[in-house]
Design brief:
Blueprint (H helix, E strand, L loop, with lengths): L2 E6 L2 E5 L4 E3 L4 E2 L3 E7 L3 E8 L4 E4 L5 H18 L4 E8 L9 H16 L6 H11 L3 H4 L4 E4 L12 E5 L7 E6 L9 H11 L3 H20 L3 H20 L10 H16 L4 E4 L6 E5 L1 H12 L6 E7 L4 E2 L3
Parallel strand pairs: 7-8
Antiparallel strand pairs: 1-6, 1-15, 2-5, 3-4, 5-9, 5-14, 6-8, 9-10, 11-13, 11-14, 12-13
Bound molecules: ligand 2P0.
Length: about 325
């Protein structure tokens, strides 16, 4: 029996994705720019089985996860026009509640595995479109280093895909993920995006401004301008959270520790001109980015923080890969 093993890593967006232009095809309303991480990953084993899909996350059947993956596998069956079924075992080497999108590394590793298992010979661009069907952010985890997700304009999503802007070596960044709370979030990103689209008075501005943010970040990256990268990242994050907070019901993902850390990092960057910035996703964890030179100093600051539960020190990583036996 042919069995494929793959690995993919989570990513963190510097220019954020929040909102869809098409829920059914999972097409984002805005483009995004992310970095793929190293040090944490999802490993997936996948093979063909009979009559019914089986999905194990961390060696357990999870009803919620199973109900999310079956529509994705239905799409694969439509795509290849063949009634094949899959047994999939995905294992994360990081806690699911850590605020690091496990769906990104999960679906990227599964898409990579399906491509190999069924000899589809998809290019990475097509692979990112396939991964996007599982989770928007998964399209970005197909690639390593610094990645752009194109929102595209075509109704069928043919121009909606991710691509690598720069490899892992281009711009050395270190990432410290600070865990402030490990409870599962009340509102998933998928539901939250729909609530924001339908109710936030700021949503249309968020969508209309996104192209400017993408282009400004691409220029900052081209110029390797840390301060511009930092400022654009912080403001994209805060704009996204403004949309979340002004949704109805409000999507308040932060806690008081999240806010305390933001204040400290904001002060370090904007007042003390230190090379450090933050970004936050749909949860209370704070991702702090810095240069290799400043990392040691940053870790000293983090160790002094009250009320944090844990932290991970990570770097930029590669895209989805086949693991050879
Ligand atoms: C991002 N997030 O750009 C943003 C920031 C969360 C906040 O991409 O519905 O799990 O599967 O496409 O990919 C999380 O969204 O959502 C996400 P779906 P996904 O990283």
């Amino acid at each position: 029996m042919k069995k494929i093993k793959t690995i993919a890593r989570p990513n963190i967006a510097l220019i954020k994705y929040w909102g869809k232009r098409d829920e059914k095809l999972n097409l984002p309303a805005v483009g995004s720019i992310s970095i793929t991480l190293d040090g944490i990953s999802t490993k997936t084993e996948i093979w063909l089985t009979q009559d019914v899909d089986k999905f194990y996350l961390n060696e357990k059947i999870d009803i919620d996860e199973h109900s999310k993956i079956v529509p994705f596998l239905d799409y694969v069956r439509d795509f290849i026009n063949d009634k094949v079924y899959f047994e999939i075992h995905s294992v994360n080497n990081f806690p699911t509640a850590a605020g690091l999108a496990s769906s990104a590394s999960g679906y990227a590793s599964i898409a990579k595995g399906i491509n190999q298992l069924l000899n589809l010979n998809l290019s990475d661009k097509e692979l990112s479109k396939l991964a996007r069907r599982g989770s928007g952010s998964a399209a970005r985890s197909i690639f390593g280093g610094i990645v752009e997700m194109h929102k595209g304009n075509e109704p069928d999503g043919s121009d909606c895909y991710a691509e690598q802007l720069y490899s892992t070596e281009y711009f050395p960044l270190d990432v410290v993920v600070v865990i402030t709370n490990t409870e599962v979030k009340k509102t998933s990103s998928r539901n939250g995006m729909l609530i924001s689209k339908n109710t936030s008075p700021y949503y249309s501005n968020w969508v209309n401004n996104s192209e400017y943010d993408i282009n400004a970040m691409k220029m900052a990256l081209r110029e390797k301008d840390f301060n511009k990268i930092a400022d654009l990242s912080i403001r994209s994050c805060l704009k996204m959270h403004s949309v979340m907070m002004t949704s109805n019901p409000p999507l308040l993902y932060w806690n008081s520790t999240t806010f305390e850390i933001i204040k400290q990092i904001e002060d370090l960057f904007y007042e003390q001109n230190q090379p450090v910035f933050f970004t936050i996703d749909a949860g209370p964890q704070v991702k702090i980015l810095t240069t290799p030179d400043y990392k040691k100093h940053l870790l000293k600051i983090i160790k002094k923080l009250d009320n944090i539960q844990d932290y991970y020190v990570l770097e930029l990583g590669n895209g989805a890969e086949i693991i050879e036996d």
